[in-house]
Design a protein that fits this description.
Distance between the termini: 31 Å
Pfam families: RMD1-3
Protein name: Regulator of microtubule dynamics protein 1
Subunit structure: Interacts with microtubules.
Order of helices and strands: HHHHHHHHHHHHHH
Number of strands: 0
CATH superfamily of one domain: Tetratricopeptide repeat domain
Keywords: Cytoplasm, Cytoskeleton, Repeat, TPR repeat
CATH architecture of one domain: Alpha Horseshoe
Strand content: under 5%
Mean pLDDT: 89
GO cellular component, one term: mitotic spindle pole
Length: about 270
Amino acid sequence: MLAATGVDEARCEPPKIKLLDGVPAGDLQDVDVLYEQAGVNGNLSRCLEKLNEMYMASTDKAEMVDLCWRLARANYNLVYSKDSGDQEVCGTQEQKKELAMDALKYARQALEVAPNDYRSHYWCGIAIQAVGEFEGTKYTITHLNDIRSHFEQAVRLNPKDGMCFYCIGMWCFELADLGWMQRQIASTIFATPPQSSFEEALKYFQRAEQVQPEFWNKNALMIAKTYEKLGDYAKAVEWCEYTTRRLVINPDDEAILKQAREVLARVEKKVKK
């Protein structure tokens, strides 16, 4: 439940930002290029290595937000990297857990120095979910409210970023889809466990598509899946077909296309009944 969103799901394009006085523009541009070329040649681990060097060399820790959220992003994405060139740093479960913990550590550092930067909240929410994959269901359920709060703060601070709305949508979808055992665990932790619905999830997925049209194929797929959960199979077919027509640029898009075709085959049968 509420699993971390995975390497490409977590990516949000770094917006145009004012670079720190103590960090040369070229250095940040270099690490962003390595990040965008992740998936081959160990570029993501090289990105993290360079960020660590820049972090250690910095003399002004009070202005580290641009480095810290990038460190959170790089550590997080390495947890899910399948690039053979990255496996030296993320090949074992112990390494993956450490990367997830580091992602949360740096996200919290970013939040300390820049509580009004949406990226600080976004990466805190993402990193808590990642840590939950290693700490277990109880940890994740305990932090459900924290996760949503960070994503809501990110939306408040940047209401034009589709990924932030998508993350709230996923929070709602997976909470609405909880199994009986997980609900029992939640009831032992909270007097009133957090609740959501597929209707609420749909609202956020649709909002994501409105504020940033076609920003990511997975959001369109989740709209289709949510309509399926709601029993509106005609709408589910419509959004599956829409997803299959979207551009396929990378392996993540290919996986989404495959899922969309599988869901389409399933809901088409339900429409015909």
